[in-house]
Every structure is written in C-alpha cells, then in structure tokens.
Amino acid sequence: MNVTTLLIILLVGAFATYFSGDKWAPKVALLFGLTAFAGTICLLSQYNLGQEINYTKLWISKPNISFALQADGLSLAMLLLTTALTPIIIYSSFGNTYKNSKAFYALILFMTFAMAGTFLASDGLLYYIFWELSLIPIYFIALIWGNGDAEERKKAVVKFFIYTLAGSLFMLVAFIYLYQKAGSFLINDLTQLKLSSTEQFWIFLAFFLAYAIKIPLIPFHTWQAEVYQKAPTVGTMLLSGIMLKMGLYSVIRWQLPIAPLAAKEYMDVFIILGIAGVIYGSIVALRQKDLKKLLAYSSLAHVGLIAAGSYTLTLDGFRGAVLQMIAHGFVVTGLFLVAEIIFRRYETRKISEMGGIRAQSPKFTSMFMILVLASVALPSTFNFVGEFTVLYSLSQVNIWFSLLGGTTIILGAYYMLKMFQHVMLGETNVRLFADVTFNEGLCLVIIIAVLFFFGMYPKPIIDLITPSLENILTQVNRFNQVK
Amino acid sequence: MDTSLVLVLLLAPFLGFLFNVFLGKKAGKSIVGIVGTLSVFVSFAMTLYLFGNANQEPVVINLFDWISIQRFNVSFGFLIDHLSLIWLLFVTGIGSLIHLYSISYMHDDEKMHSFFAYLNLFIFFMITLVIGSNLLMMFIGWEGVGLCSYLLIGFWYKNQDFNDAAKKAFIMNRIGDLGFLIGIFIVGSLFNTLDFTSLKNIITTAKDINDFWIALAALALFIGAAGKSAQIPLYTWLPDAMAGPTPVSALIHAATMVTAGIFMITRLNFLFDMAPSVQNIIAIVGAVTALVAATIALVQNDIKKVLAYSTVSQLGLMFLALGLGAYEVAVFHVITHAFFKACLFLGSGSVIHGLHGEQDMRKMGGLKKAMPITFITMLIAALAISGIFPLAGFWSKDEILMTAFHANIALWVIGSIASIMTAFYMFRLIYLTFFNSFRGTEEQKNHLHESPSLITLPLIILAILSFFGGIISLPGNSWLNKYLAPLFSKVVHEEHQFGNTEYMLMAIATIGAIIGIGIAYKKYLKDNTIPSEDAEITGVTKVLYNKYYVDEAYDAIFVKPVNVLSSFFRDSVETTLSALIFGLGKVTNEIALQGKKIHNGSVGLYLFAFVLGVIAIITYLFL
C-alpha cells in the first residue's frame, strides 16, 4: 500500500460513520481508527524495508499543483502519533453520549484525515488545503458539542476560527510568492530556491504568523485556553494532542528549510520567544481555577519549549522537539481524559470544587499521578527523553537558554503538584467518586504504557526520525557552503 | 560477577513494589510485610555476595542505548565498583532493618500495602542511583528517590499540611535537579560522554582543560547535591519532611537518600578535584550548614525536628570533608551516621508509637523504665553521634575535624562548635524523653509499654553497629580508605601522621562533647521541670525556634511574588491580549462600515472617483 490508502481509509471511515447511524457511529469510527493505525504500522514496516510508499500525481496543470504525498521518518512519526491517538480518543469518548453522534464521530475521523494529510503533503498548496481543512471539523465539534454558555462558546470558537484562518492566509501569500519563483509548489523545489535574505525574512515571517497562532506561541495564544475549556474533551484532545503539533511539525518541515537564513539571523529571538512561553505559561497555570484551563496553559509552556528546541537549528533540537511532540501528545490526551473522568462524576471543572478524591479511587489516583509525573518529565518517562534532549540542545546554543528553559522542571512541578493536591488529596470528599470504569482505565493504561515504554527505550523512534531530520538539517545549512 | 546477579539485586525491590501495588490489598498485611521486607533482603544478600566476591576491577554492564545526543549516546547501564558496593551495603542492609521495623510500626495503618510499595520502590530507585554507570542513570535514581520521598512524606494525604510538606520537598529538590541537569549539559559538551569510567579517564589524562567550565559544571552539580542532601540554601524541606511516618524519616531522610549528594560528589571526585574554587565553596557551605542547623536543633521541642536538624547539621560536616577533598572521610561519616541516625529515628518512632503519636518532648519524660530497650539503644546512638570514645561517631567525626584542622583553623572551630552543640541537643533529647517523671496524660501513662520485638530488634542491631562501626576506619589502619583508594584520582589525602596534635584534637573533641552533655545535664536533669525558655519561647530562642524565619523569607521572596505575578498575568495580561485581538477585529469591522457608506449607489460619486483615479494614474505614469 502507499500513503494514499491511509488517507482513503480515514475519509471512507468518516462517511461510513456518518451513514451508520447514531447507534453504530462510535463503534464504526473506532473500527476505522484502529484500521488507520494498523495501516500506519504497515506503512512503517514498508518504509523500513525500503519500499516505495510515496504518491505523486499531477493534479492541476495550470497552476502547477501536484497531489504529492511523501512520507519520510518525520512524517511517519507524526502519522503514528495521529493514528495512535485517534482510536484512544474515540474510545475514551464511549463514556459520554452525544446528540447526533454520527456527525460527531464522522467529524473526528474527518479531522484525523485532514491532519494526516497535513503531515504527508509535499506540495505546498495541497498542504495548505489540508491545513485549512482540519480547521473545519474542530470548529463544528467545539461549537455544537461544546459546553458552557452557548453565546460565550460561540464567541470563543469563532474567534479561534478566524484567528487561525487569518494567520494561515499569510502562509498562503508566502506560498504564492514562492510559486512565482519556483514554478512549482513541491517542497523539493521550494527548498532549492536561492532566495535573498530579505525575501527569506518576509517568507519566514509569513509562515511564522500561521504557525505561531496554531502552536500557539505567546503572545498569539489567547484563543487557546478558552477554546480548550469550551470544547468537548474529545475536541480538546484532538487540538492539544495532535493539532498543535501540526504547527510545530510545519516549522521543521516547511519554515526552516525554505527560509533558513532568516531562521539563523533571528534564531535568538525565536528561541527566547519559545522560552518566554515556557515561563509565562507555567506562571499563568499556577493560579488557574479551571482544570482544563490549567492544562491549556501547561500545554502552552510545553510547546514553547518544543518550539525553542526547533529553532536551535541543531539535530538535537529537532530530535528533542519531535520526541517531545509525541510524548506531549500522549500525556496531554491522558490528562484531559482525567479532567473528563472527574467531570463525569462531579460535573465540574472548578478545582475548588474537587479534592478528597484519592481515598475513594486508588486506581484513578495512581494513573493520574503517573500522568502528572510524566508531564513534569520524570526520568524513565518519554517526556524526560524529549525534554532532556531539547534542553541539551538549548545549552549548546547558550547555557542561559537551558537554565531559563529548565525552569519548566521547577515551575512545572509546582503547578502540577499543586493542582494534584487540590484535586485529589485532603479530607475524603463527601460526594461519592467511583473509581475508573474499564473503558476509562484501558485508555489511561495504554497511554501510560506508551509513556513508560518509550521513556525507557526511545531508540525505535529516534532511529525512525533521525535520518529525515538530518536531511532537513542539510537543507537548512545549504547556504553555508555558498558563503 | 554476572549480569543476572546485578539485575536480581536491582529488580527484587521492584517486584516487591509491583506485588504490593497490585496484590497487596488482597494479600493481607502479614504477606505485604513479609514480601516487602524479603524483597529488600534479597538485594542485601546479593550485595553481600558481590561484596564477598568482588574483584578489584569495577564491572560495567551496558544493557542498551537509552538517549541519543548527536555527539554521544547515553547507555542504560550499571557500574559496580567499591563505591557502589559500600553504598549498596548500607542502603539494602539498613533498608531491610527498617522494612522489618515497619511491619510492626505500620501494622495499624489501613494503607500498609501502599506504604510497603513506596518503600520498595524507594529502595529500587536508590539502587539505581548507586549503580548507574553514567550521570543520566544516576539522575533516574536521583529523581526517583525524590518521587518516593514525595509520596511518603505525604503518605497521610488527608492532612493538607503534610501534602504541603511533600510538595515543598519535591519542588526544592527540583531546584537542585535543575542544577544537576545544567551540570550534566556542561559535562556532556566538554567531554562528549556522561559515562563515569570514560569521564574519569578523560579528565585525569587531559592536558588542557577549561578551568572555567569545569568549575561551572562542578558548581552546578553541587547545587544538585545541596538540594538532595539538604544544604544551605536548599535545606528547609528536610525538617518539614518529618511529616512522613517515622520509618521513612529514618530510611530516606536520615540514612540513605539524603546522602545521595555526598555519593554524587564522591563519584565525581576527579571532576571536583579540578575545581578547587568550588571545593572551597562546598567546604564553607558544609561548615555553615553544620553550625546553623545545630543552633536550630538546640531549641526544637518536637523530637523528630531535633533529629531532622541534627541530620542537616551532620550532612553539613560531611560536605565540609568533601570540600576539603577528604572523600573517604565523608563516606566514613555517611556510614556511621546511617547507623546512629537510623537508630535514633527508629527509637523516636518507638517512643512516638508508645505515646500514640505524641511528638512533643515536653510531654514526655521518665520513659526509661517503661521502654528500657528503646532507652538503651537510643542512649548508645546519642553517645555515638556526640562523639564519645570509642563509639562509631567518635572516629568519623574526629577524622572530619582533624582534616579541617589541617586545612583551615576557622573551619575546625565551626565544626567543633557544631559538635559541642550536637552533644548538647542530643542529651537534651535523651533527658527530656527518658529521665525524670512522665509529663503526659494519665491515660497515656497507663498504656506505657516497650515496643514489640520487630521494633526493638532493628534498634538493637543498629545500636551495636553504632557502637562498633568505627572499626572500619581506625586511624592509622583504615580498611575503608584502602577499599576506596582505587576510586580517587589524587592521593593528596594520605593518612595523618598520628602525633601529639592528633591526640590533642581528640582530647579537645571529647572534652567538648562532655561539656555539651554536662550543660544538658545541668539544665534538664537536675530539676524535674521544663526550663522556662522551653515552656515559653521568647527572645533569641524564638528566632532559633522559628528557624531564623528562613521559610518565611523564602515565602516572601519567591513564593508570594510568583503567585502575585500569576494572578497579574491571569487577570490583566491575558485579558488585555485577548481584547487586543478582538480590537483588531473591530477595526476591520469599522473600516468595512465606513466603506459601506461610500458604496451608496450614487453613480455621480463613482464617476468622480473614477476620474480622480485616472488622473492620478496618468500623472504617475507621465511625470
């Protein structure tokens, strides 16, 4: 098979889910999610065996747009994250019932389809289409199935939609400019361009707007916390677990190789911006009253560090960033599930209304604790591998960067343990809290197993991504020889 | 020495942990205790075997590549050498005893299985820390024991004060850990390896070494050590950590985990030898910590708090020795301290157990009749820590003071004063607890009894070790020094010539200890009342009692500002940023509204605009 098959599975899955009716929709969606995961594993083994899995076909001849999908180690790693999380996310939602669930689950698969496409597309315009396409399902998921006051929700979601859309338009303009120069949208052509440093600067900036809003980096993050809070948990998981990584992935895949001179020139600025996000996000998280909002700000801090790692333009920075993207995807999905599990029992997200849960639910407590520890990057969890590598790369640029970025291990422990204390510990809560159900437990156990396994043995992923990242690094450094 | 033996040694406590987590509740308390204790005892037996059969050459076991950095790989590997064996011996040995003790001590706790699970997990991580073959492996253990410490301090999680203490311990340790990480980064970029054996080879043979970066690495690593081993300024978590059950205080917060910092510096002695300026800092920090903590211990009324500050103070003495390059002396004191401090903590646990949770020494007294074994074992340990001849503490403390004397007289004075204070507060503790008449309630008085044998047996063993432990390193003929010698790059620290000066120093130390005990005797034993300054705390005592208000200062300087900043960010910055984005939207909207007015369908206006435009273009093109 080739990568197109995977996209077809997801797209067909979306339709099949929609037409299977409300009752069967969740199960059909899960089935297709699992099939897509199996497909990814299949692609991986083919890739490792050196078989051809890419697909290119001329789509429109004027302008010259190709339907080009290319999977290297980096894309496959992101694909693995996407298709592994999707079934977990779908399965975790079995504890809830949704009105019009056929549309709900169809949208989830459709979103996965668009995100997978984004990770695979090697033609700029195709990539742009997938990028924008992924916005539509999450818009409806958050708007229709979200929670809280409908008016406020609409405000938050529309703001998010327009904001990210506006950011992406700059990217489109950049692509059109690049097309005029190269006569093609293919990434291989775009990374061959000899652009002047002024051109690179503007292109870099245009990409940056799109990505900074999506990731998000401060100060472009204002949509995030509200949308995370208002969206249904499934939506929040899709957003934070996978969609954020589209921005981070694109930095490494598109922005840096196309405009490396600008990236080098302003490296410090963007690293500092990332680190500022780490500190700012951590501090804001400290006094959040809403559990989901707290997790949103913690996400802001983590992605700040990942971005800082990417902008070091070193192999260690890239590698740490990708590892941390995957690790963060899993841990944040688990943490949002935890928030949902509490919500199912207490119908609140206010931390002040929780507390005293530990005595009633030993299994839930242990799993929550482990996720908290993974989130603060305890060694032997996957998150440590990523965080260590990123911080190491920062230390190679400037020891101060690693010191400032490293405050995440202190501040992170502070806000996470404080949250855990107020949510879980203290005198036994008078309201009954049933321990995790089979469904909830299974989702958390899978996530935890992944985090520990790759925490101890990250080698398979490191081996998968390293050659691709080295290629990208060569593209990034292509101007060095000219000088 | 084969791999499987080491893996059994490492994994036995981990299996104990898994058993207690998954089956502990169903298995019942007796099984939990037996499995928990046995699993540590297996490690101890393995250690003894390795110790008995150890070759002179260290053994390295690399399992697989763990983390990859562009310029080097970090392997998941272990290193068994004399240093790790020494640590393993007392970690698993004392660990076994404390597990045994806990079977009885925690028997009435409904969460006994969790307790043993955490304790097993702790031993597992401690072993990892000790036998890790590189800095990152050590770091796994390092943070792992920190986690167990967190879990066990907050073991009684219904009390939010205890949870606060647990959280504080974790976060303060993490401040140190950041230092540790920065140290790792610098070491990694200087030498392209984190492996201890390679590092030693590179550093001891390298010719041009960048002094500045080496010193910076050493300093950063020392900050890590200071966090874990509760040195100034990162010591305030340790006294709070006494919120945990007493066996935890004995095992983690006295005998083993808090010595990790000393282990790390000893492990990296070749690195620290290259950074004399940092060694000076270590010596000074150690000496000052020893003194400051001792002064606080003078006036504490909580029996465990006295012991906690005593631990901080003793750790300070060890750092003093490290700073002077006398690594083997520091290790010697680590071992003897593990014996007598574990004994003291377990003894205090026996007392607290007997009094149903009472920890205030003002409400104790006269317990020696009711609890004779506890009394005698604690007395021996107190004599040992005070440095009375010929108990273990005498030899090890004397070595530290002697080293200090030869290096810098001021450090010796500080160390000696701290030691005199030690003798005083230890006997204050003994007198208040065991002598005169009982000051608690009638109810408690009727229930006074000696603790069961599972509790007294470890006490007796530890008391014997506290008595004879000095044998391992007698001046002039030290087994320990010879055993550890292959570890050290420099042989700067030859054994002292034993002359008049040394005998004089010993005499001074002993007299000091006796003076300390004498003052305590005069103050606490002669009259059957609590001295007024202990009953009502005022003046200087109040400053000491409140630990120089360091906690309050940290709160005001760090914690509060961060929280204020957090509120400010949350309430002001976030809303402003959000409004700005909306503002942008509004501006667009406004432009559109204005634009709409122009598009009012008046053809005249359109024509006018058209003509203006054409004129403008023509002007632009032709002029």
From TrEMBL, chain A:
Extract the InterPro entries matched here: NADH_Q_OxRdtase_chainM/4 (IPR010227), NADH_UbQ_OxRdtase (IPR003918), ND/Mrp_TM (IPR001750)
Residue ranges of the TM segments? 6-21, 28-47, 67-91, 103-122, 128-148, 160-180, 200-219, 231-249, 269-287, 294-313, 325-343, 364-385, 397-417, 438-457
Location of the NADH:quinone oxidoreductase/Mrp antiporter transmembrane domain: 122-407
Might you name a Gene Ontology BP term for this protein? ATP synthesis coupled electron transport
Q: Which UniProt keywords apply?
A: Membrane, Transmembrane, Transmembrane helix
Q: Name one GO molecular function term.
A: ubiquinone binding
Q: Which residues form a coiled coil?
A: none
Topology relative to the lipid bilayer, per the entry, is: Multi-pass membrane protein
Chief location: membrane
List the record's Gene Ontology CC terms alphabetically: endomembrane system; membrane
State the compartments where it is located: Endomembrane system; Membrane
* Top-level taxon of origin: Bacteria
Which family, according to UniProt?
Belongs to the complex I subunit 4 family.
Name-wise, this protein is: NADH-quinone oxidoreductase subunit M
Taxonomic source organism: Flavobacterium soyangense
Automatic annotation (TrEMBL), chain B:
GO annotations under biological process?
Answer: ATP synthesis coupled electron transport; electron transport coupled proton transport
User: Which keywords does UniProt give here?
Assistant: Membrane, Transmembrane, Transmembrane helix
The UniProt record lists the NADH:quinone oxidoreductase/Mrp antiporter transmembrane domain at 133-422
Transmembrane stretches, start-end: 6-24, 31-51, 85-103, 115-133, 178-194, 214-238, 250-272, 278-299, 373-395, 407-434, 454-474, 503-521, 603-622
Q: Where in the cell is it found?
A: Endomembrane system; Membrane
> Which terms does the record give in the GO molecular function aspect?
NADH dehydrogenase (ubiquinone) activity; NADH dehydrogenase activity
Looking at the UniProt record for this protein, which Gene Ontology cellular component terms does it annotate, in alphabetical order? endomembrane system; membrane
- State the name under which the record lists this protein: NADH-quinone oxidoreductase subunit L
